[in-house]
C-alpha cells in the first residue's frame, strides 16, 4: 500500500517543473487550489539546503494575479525523508491540511453496499464531453479555491481528456441535480491502481448523496477497466469519514505545509 501511495505523483501535461534528486516542484494550472507544489521529496542533501533551493526555483512560478501562487504547498508523504518537516518549520512554513491515505479493493465495490448505491435523482456525466469537462474544472475552482480557466483554454486540452476517458485512463465525472452541476470527482487508472482525486460537492447540495454517487461512478469505471485497488487521499474531517463508511481503510496520513516564497 505504501508503495502504491508513493507512486502517486500527479504532474499535469505540459506543467512547468523544477526537479532534482531530492524533489519535484510543479507549477499546476491557476484553477488548482495550490498552484505551486512540491509533490515528491527524497533523502539526499540536508533538507535545509533543499528547501532553500526549492524557494529559489519557485520564484519564477509566482503570478501576482494568482495570490495562491505566493506559497509552495509542500507535501510530506508517507515516504518523506527524516527532517523534512523540521526544515519546513524552520523556514516559516505553516500547516495547510492533513489527509488520510485510504484504500479498498475494487472487485466487490457496489455489491450489496448501501454506502455505494448512487442517489436516484443524481445524473452523472463524464468529461469526454467539453461542457462536462468545463463544469468539472469550474466546480473544483469554486469549492477548493483557484482561478477558473476559461472555456477557450480548456478547448486546447479537451481532446486529450476525452481520449483518456474513452481509453480507460480515467477522467472526471460530474453530478447534476435538475440539470445543474453540483459535484464532481476524478479517477486516474495507473496499472492495477485507481487513484481517486478531487471529490467536491457544492455546499447547498450536501447531504443528498452526491458524493456517494460520484464515488460509486468512479469505482464502477475502475472496475470496468480492470483496476484492482482504489486509493484516495481524503481530508480528515470531510471526505475521510464518508470513505471509511464506503469500505476504505486508512493506512496513514500525509500533510501539506504552506511555505512563503518571498
CATH superfamily of the largest domain: Gcn5-related N-acetyltransferase (GNAT)
Tell me the domain tally.
2
| Name given to the CATH architecture of the largest domain | 3-Layer(aba) Sandwich
- H-E string: HEEEHEHEEHHEEEHEHE
Evaluate the radius of gyration.
Answer: 18 Å
Determine the structural class based on helices, strands and strand pairing: alpha+beta
The end-to-end distance, rounded to whole angstroms, is 37 Å
List low-confidence stretches: none
CATH domain topology of the largest domain: Aminopeptidase
Strand arrangement, major sheet: 1-2-3-4-11-5-10-9-8-7-6
The percentage of residues in β strands lies in 25-35%
The CATH first-level class of the largest domain comes to Alpha Beta
| Overall pLDDT confidence | 90
Question: Roughly how much helix do the residues carry, as a percent range?
Answer: 25-40%
Plain-language structure description:
- The chain is α+β, with helices and mostly antiparallel strands and 262 residues long.
- The protein folds into 2 domains: 2-99 and 255-260, no CATH class; 107-227, Aminopeptidase, CATH 3.40.630.
- The chain is 30% helix and 32% strand.
- An 11-stranded mixed sheet has the order 1-2-3-4-11-5-10-9-8-7-6, sandwiched between helices.
- The longest helix has 17 residues, at 151-167.
- Residues 122-262 form the N-acetyltransferase domain.
Summarize the structure.
This protein has helices spanning 2-6, 47-58, 84-90, 130-144, 151-167, 210-224, 239-245; strands at 17-20, 23-27, 36-41, 71-76, 94-105, 123-126, 170-177, 180-190, 193-201, 229-235, 249-260. The chain is of the alpha+beta class and 262 residues long. It folds into two domains: 2-99 and 255-260, no CATH class; 107-227, 3-Layer(aba) Sandwich (Aminopeptidase).
Amino acid at each position: 500500500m505504501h508503495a502504491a501511495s508513493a507512486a502517486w505523483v500527479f504532474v499535469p501535461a505540459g506543467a512547468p517543473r523544477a526537479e532534482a534528486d531530492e524533489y519535484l516542484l510543479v507549477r499546476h494550472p491557476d484553477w488548482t487550489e495550490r498552484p505551486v507544489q512540491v509533490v515528491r521529496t527524497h533523502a539526499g542533501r540536508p533538507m535545509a539546503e533543499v528547501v532553500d533551493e526549492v524557494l529559489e526555483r519557485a520564484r519564477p512560478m509566482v503570478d501576482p494575479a494568482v495570490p495562491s501562487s505566493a506559497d509552495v504547498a509542500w507535501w510530506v508523504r508517507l515516504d518523506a525523508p527524516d527532517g523534512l518537516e523540521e526544515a519546513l518549520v524552520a523556514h516559516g512554513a505553516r500547516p495547510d491540511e492533513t489527509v488520510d491515505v485510504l484504500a479498498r479493493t475494487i472487485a466487490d465495490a457496489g455489491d450489496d453496499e448501501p454506502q455505494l448505491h448512487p442517489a436516484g435523482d443524481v445524473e452523472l456525466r463524464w468529461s469526454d464531453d467539453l461542457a462536462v469537462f468545463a463544469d468539472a474544472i469550474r466546480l473544483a475552482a469554486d469549492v477548493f479555491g483557484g482561478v477558473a480557466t476559461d472555456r477557450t483554454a480548456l478547448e486546447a486540452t479537451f481532446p486529450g481528456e476525452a481520449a483518456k476517458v474513452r481509453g480507460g485512463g480515467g477522467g472526471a465525472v460530474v453530478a447534476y441535480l435538475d440539470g445543474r452541476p453540483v459535484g464532481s470527482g476524478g479517477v486516474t487508472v495507473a496499472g492495477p491502481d485507481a487513484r481517486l482525486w478531487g471529490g467536491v460537492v457544492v455546499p447547498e447540495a450536501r447531504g443528498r448523496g452526491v458524493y456517494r454517487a460520484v464515488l460509486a461512478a468512479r469505482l464502477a469505471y475502475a472496475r470496468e477497466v480492470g483496476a484492482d485497488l482504489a486509493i484516495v487521499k481524503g481530508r480528515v474531517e470531510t471526505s475521510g469519514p464518508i470513505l471509511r463508511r464506503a469500505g476504505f481503510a486508512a493506512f496513514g496520513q500525509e500533510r501539506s505545509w504552506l511555505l512563503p516564497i518571498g
